[in-house]
Design brief:
This protein is α/β, with parallel strands linked by helices and about 750 residues long. It folds into two domains: about 375 residues, TIM Barrel; about 325 residues, TIM Barrel, CATH 3.20.20. Helix content is about 40%, strand content about 15%. The strands form eight sheets. An eight-stranded parallel beta sheet has the order 1-12-11-10-9-8-6-2. The chain has a five-stranded parallel beta sheet with strand order 20-22-23-24-25. Helix 1 packs antiparallel against helix 2 and helix 8 packs parallel to helix 9. The longest helix has 22 residues. The mean pLDDT is about 95.
Amino acid sequence: MQKSYVIGFPRIGEKRELKKVLEKYWSKQSDFNEVKYVARQLKRRHWNYQKQANISFISSNDFSLYDNVLDTTILLGAIPKRFEHLKDEELYFTMARGNDSCPAMEMTKWFNTNYHYIVPEISKNTTFKLNSKKIIEEYNEAKELGLKTKINLIGPITYLGLSKSIDNSDVFFQINNVVKIYKELLEEISKLDDEIIVQFDEPLFVKDIDTKVLSLIKPVYDELSNSISNIKVVVATYFEHSNEATKILVNTSIWALALDFIYGEKNLEVLEEINNSNKTLIAGVIDGRNIWKSDFKKKIDLLEKISSHINKDKLIVSTSCSLLHVPFSLKYEDNLAKEIKSWLAFACEKLNELSLVSKDFFDVDLNLEEISTIKRNLEDNIQRKTSSKIHNLEIQNEIKNLKLFERVDKFKERIKIQREFFNYDYLTTTTIGSFPQTPEIRENRKKFKENCISKEEYEKEIKKYIDDCISFQEEIGLDVLVHGEPERNDMVEYFGEMLDGFAFTQNAWVQSYGSRCVKPPLIYGDVNRANPMTVSWITYAQSKTSKVVKGMLTGPVTILNWSFVRDDIKRSEVAKQIALAIAKEVDDLQKAGIKMIQVDEAAFKEGYPLRVENIKTYEKWAVYNFKLSVSLAAIDTQIHTHMCYSEFNDIIKTIEEMDADVISIETARSGNRLLKIFKEVAYKQEVGPGIYDIHSPRIPSVDEMVKQIKALLEVLPKEQLWINPDCGLKTRKWPEVKQSLKNMVEAVNIIKNKFN
């Protein structure tokens, strides 16, 4: 009998149905009953896909209306005081998105992925109360369809480990209280069926956690796994190896360990301990984070290697992590080149891969179609290795012969010339780059791509948007302007469409947070820039104003980290090819008179390895490639960069090494906590801390922004500070943007008047 296990499944819907109904509800075009109806239909459809693929272990409670960590906060009743007057869906979405009187909870990246979670707020006074409604209802929904699911939960140690202490107390002070709620939950779950599997996700265990946290593992999981006789506990880790935790977990009463053997190869080192403990091993061998078709032969070889240490009857074949991180299905990709499409597998295809690999490994009889699929898999993988689409010898030679790797002039020399050249003083106002992508702009781009309108008609609308955008910024008194990026579908996809070696999909959406989805490009071959990518639109915008217009580019590390990247060469080599392309664009921009250029590295931090032992290698090539991308900038060309949701304490020296002239960062949801490190290390370059949160629809008042700027001035001198929102404004509505930016400029003027 085959044994196949899926850690978790995408929830946004194959055509982003959840996104659409949520945004309709938030804009008051429908009520919450419609959201619940769509959610119910999606869950049923997703369970059915897994059932059709003969998956043995299917999850419930992997679905969420916004975020599964936020769901856990609701489950535990750990509601911050500012939300306690709210109930039900209003409470849930206000915690995620905020409102006029309640700032949203902080949001940050889920380990080293592009998924964001809502950060729990914990203090020594936090009280917990079980709210199991969602979990019970979802299990029963599946049961009505004849499915007996496993129940997915965020593990208590990971939940607290990813929380934010709001009173400087140790969050793990609350571990006994949290475990108590989980035990109450398990008691309720135990009444649902004769035997139930509960999966506790503990990805925190793959990091370099200290001995104090390690010491919690055995008592916590002995208590949880011993508490109810008809519940079998699985502890799942992913994205890296978890050897230290595994060596402890094998001595607890849990039933099984789910380990990632794709990104955690060192998990192979603890197989003997697992076997000796008689625990079941759920072996993650189908890649849950990338989109390349599995090489069935390599998967079977890996499973055979594992089974040389673990008895086959104690083995289950699994995805490496949740399939949340890959697109839904290839079935809508009609425009992809047939050859490239044959190299790919999205979530639904991975279900079939998982089922086939499991059958093959457990010697289950295969039908003719399955035998044919395995044969085709071998052919497709061979063909991919030899394809002429992948290799560009000209670029390979250009990379080998690079002579310039970084800027020649030092920051101290550059900044004097730049300040004089651009004629700015302090608290200079700007934005991060993008302005709202209106339905009209999206429709205009769609019509042009579908050849429904001419290039002239398309460009006329883009120019009109830019004209209005420049006019608005001048009207409110922003110092440094942007063109608004109306021609861009996405900050990575836009550039990838003009670079060789990239492929693009119609419907390969992946959830980033809430209703926000991204459609990452596929980097399948050598990267080359044949022509300028942004020069014409930026110079057009500059021609409409006497103020400075920033050129807007996406950096090589972010393009890499927000793409699905080829796996046949090192990621660092792919980044180097992208960096060379960006360097050529920087040079063309400055030659066209654009002397302030932002090279965004929004995803720089999320590419960090989860283990300290691997960090220096990543930092070395990531910094190298950023510096390469701006290496052609002249002394009077000012290079800006932007970073999202980054804990800077551990990477501040690396940021200094990047040597950008100005860095803007997201700090609005975290106050000055992130900014203080810049003062502590005597950071010399200029900084633009975001003074308001663009991920929430609320409009901050002038007074609120004045207080925020004053708080910034307590940390850094005014001459070092720029003032801006904390991220791009693409996802916001124009009324929010206009009033918020007006308030921002007014707040700066109030502060400046006090200095004069």
